[in-house]
Design a protein that fits this description.
Elements: E1 2-6, E2 13-17, E3 22-25, E4 32-35, E5 53-57, H1 61-80, H2 84-104, E6 107-111, E7 117-119, E8 128-129, H3 132-147
Parallel strand pairs: 5-8
Antiparallel strand pairs: 1-2, 1-7, 3-4, 5-6, 6-7
């Protein structure tokens, strides 16, 4: 079970393998965090203690959009060359490939407050997909903290 997070003080990215209780020290600012052994259902964030977590697909969105844009660009040219069967085969093939990736790729659990990503945990019923209103509330909270 892996966690990717930013140091609470200097925001340097860090990775940690969770499983047992462990101490972590930031190599940049020497900030220390104590990680307790967490349940597989992950009820709270191990970094900041926040109870509001959401799940998302553990796949880079830029790669997914890149595949989609490449298929659309290539299909534009194949359609212009009057290769309609090739165009449809390309678009449907891309759709099927995307569907296979959707079911093959697992979920990551993300904290709304500190944006820590947890991989290898089971998403529980409490972990819903991203909710824009909750995300906006935490974004506004971060803006207010930075202004103070």
């Amino acid at each position: 079970m892996h966690v990717c997070f930013a140091c609470p003080l200097c925001e340097r990215p860090a990775r940690l393998l969770l499983g047992v209780s462990t101490d972590w020290q930031c190599p940049a600012c020497d900030h220390r965090l104590r990680f307790e052994a967490v349940e597989p259902a992950l009820p709270v964030c191990a970094v900041c203690g926040n109870k509001e977590l959401y799940k998302k697909k553990d796949f880079p969105h830029t790669l997914g959009m890149g595949i989609l844009v490449a298929a659309c660009v290539v299909s534009f040219f194949t359609y212009g060359w009057y290769e309609k069967w090739l165009t449809w085969a390309l678009l449907i093939g891309t759709f099927l490939f995307d569907g296979i990736l959707h079911f093959w790729v697992g979920d990551a659990i993300v904290c709304y407050r500190c944006h820590a990503h947890y991989r290898g945990f089971q998403a529980a019923d409490a972990h819903k997909p991203f909710e824009l209103t909750i995300g906006e509330r935490y974004r506004q909270e971060q803006i207010r903290r930075e202004q103070l």
